[in-house]
From TrEMBL:
GO terms for cellular component: cytosol. Residues 19-305 form the Luciferase-like domain. This is Luciferase-like monooxygenase. Pfam families: Bac_luciferase. One of its GO terms (molecular function) is oxidoreductase activity, acting on paired donors, with incorporation or reduction of molecular oxygen. To bacterial alkanal monooxygenase alpha and beta chains. It comes from the Bacteria.
Length: 332
């Protein structure tokens, strides 16, 4: 595909910055969603994480309703709902309600990981914690969205008969293969799992079978992006995300830290390698530098859409980074 054909969307973990509150993080998400809509982004997805003191989007469906009510055109979705944490009927009713209130604007992205630590996953799931029943849960959910039949005892109200696009999400090949075989769109978490990107891309395309939902494969790639006036400024801004990931791997998750000028003073060499390799799916620099990086990425992958995470401490600079990225993409 040509680089100019790529669509851009926003992935928001609703980060709570140091010294702030979950309430402010949600207001930041509202402001960013409005900004993304004005800048022409395709969709705005929020992610389900639990027991994380740096993330405010645990009640994902509730956050989506808040964002949909604050915008007019941009698609609002989950990136994703961790289906094994919920009863399929609950998700069908929640998303049926969202689609009823905001018709034609709701996406349901589904994952099978817990989205948290094992103890919290056990508290949420109260049953199997390995996600192996995900295909069965997915089939149950899709059946609940089908038009109701005479005599049907279990119905999602609202939900039954509504056209809500279902996406599968993944960071390996499992959901890529499943999405392909079912003819569903697939979103890959390249923002933290770049090593599996090509394997997942190939698995999805190789297993794809057309369906009433999708005639051709549709692959959306998650990336991180930091676009600023200079490459040095972009590297400085990205240090907040790098610190947060380092803290997570040290078992000390928390709010998003402010950026630092000398991040090398904060990590050991092996930690530096771990963080930078895990976050290798990142565009970073001034507009000219990112234009080259983006063009190369699209040439290598041919993906249909990019969904972009941008964990910047300063909210005005965060919005500016997204604007610069959209400007870069428009010129390719």
């Amino acid at each position: 595909m040509s680089a100019s054909a790529v669509r851009l969307s926003v992935l928001d973990l609703c980060p709570i910055v140091q010294g702030s509150t979950p309430a402010q993080a949600l207001r930041n998400a509202q402001a960013l969603a409005r900004h993304a809509e004005n800048e022409g982004f395709q969709r705005y997805w929020v992610a389900e994480h639990h027991n994380m003191t740096g993330i405010a989007s645990a009640a994902t469906s509730v956050v989506m309703g808040y964002l949909a009510a604050s915008t007019e055109r941009i698609r609002i979705g989950s990136g994703g709902i961790m289906l094994p944490n919920h009863a399929p009927l609950q998700i069908a009713e929640q998303f049926g309600t969202l689609e009823s209130l905001y018709p034609g604007r709701i996406d349901l992205g589904l994952g099978r990981a817990p989205g948290t630590d094992p103890a919290t996953a056990a508290a949420l799931r109260r049953g199997r914690a390995d996600g192996e029943d995900f295909p069965e849960m997915l089939a149950e959910l899709r059946a609940l969205f089908a038009p109701s039949q005479p005599g049907q005892r279990l119905q999602a109200v609202p939900g039954a008969g509504l056209d809500i696009p279902i996406w599968l999400l993944g960071s390996s090949t499992y959901s890529a293969q499943l999405a392909g075989s079912l003819g569903l769109p697939f979103a890959f978490a390249g923002q933290f799992s770049p090593d599996y990107m090509y394997a997942a891309l190939n698995a999805y395309r190789d297993h794809f079978q057309s369906s009433p939902d999708l005639q051709q494969p549709y692959f959306m790639l998650g990336i991180n992006a930091y676009v600023a006036e200079s490459t040095e400024q972009a590297q400085f801004l990205a240090s907040s995300h790098q610190q947060a990931f380092l803290n997570l791997r040290r078992g000390q998750p928390g709010p998003l830290p402010p950026p630092v000028a000398d991040i090398d003073s904060l990590w050991q060499p092996h930690e530096r390698h771990m963080v930078l390799s895990t976050l290798a799916g990142t565009l970073m620099g001034d507009e000219a530098t990112v234009a080259n990086q983006l063009s190369d990425l699209l040439e290598r992958t041919g993906v249909d859409e990019l969904i972009v995470n941008c964990s910047i401490f300063d909210q005005a600079l965060r919005r500016e980074s997204y604007s610069r990225l959209q400007k870069v993409a428009a010129k390719l």
